[in-house]
Design goal:
three-stranded antiparallel β-sheet; about 65% helix; 7 helices; transmembrane; ATPase_Vma12; transmembrane helix; two-stranded antiparallel sheet; coiled coil; membrane
């Protein structure tokens, strides 16, 4: 907190004039003002005495005019040294809080996570799902090809022309393929559930 002024040249000039002209000035105030010639700081206590003197004697110089080029003197705040035990304790608390924050941030992180799309368990489920689809498609193709082959070979006893045999085999394979697709769709619908 400020308790004094840094005096400027205007105050020095006016105070010198006051010392020379004022005879009703107390000796204590004269000594304080004479001491200011060597110093650059004036305490508020001396300023109050000077203000009282100017008011009592009716001088045309006002206090704010004296301190026009002066400034408040703010003493430098000296911080006491910190207690080493307190510093050590604060460091422990900071480390503990940082550790808790880290745990809070990483609580939902799985160390087995492979990438942004999931972990190894999800990858295993996806592989099994793809494997089931591949087996189903392969089963569908084998069934349709087998139906075509059986119909083609079996139709040689009914038809003598190759065109008729191929046409009969395509019709039989199409019927078997459609039946297989119907069963496949019903199965997948049952697995996924009704929407």
């Amino acid at each position: 907190m400020a308790s004094s002024f840094k005096i400027g040249e205007r105050f020095r000039e006016k105070s010198t004039d006051l010392l020379e002209r004022e005879s009703a000035m107390s000796e204590e105030l004269k000594e304080e003002l004479n001491a200011l010639k060597d110093q650059s700081i004036i305490p508020f206590k001396t300023v109050r005495k000077l203000h009282k003197l100017l008011q009592e004697n009716g001088h045309p110089v006002y206090l704010h005019e004296l301190f026009e080029d002066s400034a408040l003197h703010l003493p430098e705040v000296i911080k006491p040294p910190r207690n080493p035990q307190l510093v050590a304790r604060l460091e422990k608390i900071k480390a503990k809080l940082a550790n808790e924050e880290y745990k809070r941030i990483t609580r939902n992180v799985n160390p087995q996570e492979m990438n942004n799309h999931g972990n190894f368990a999800d990858f295993g489920r996806q592989v099994r799902s793809v494997k089931a689809v591949v087996v189903t498609v392969f089963n569908f193709l084998v069934t349709v090809v087998a139906a075509f082959a059986c119909s083609y070979m079996g139709s040689q006893y009914i038809f003598t022309e190759t065109t008729a045999r191929v046409l009969a085999a395509v019709i039989a394979a199409s019927v078997v393929g459609l039946a297989e697709l119907y069963v496949l769709v019903r199965t997948m619908e049952g697995e996924l559930g009704d929407p």
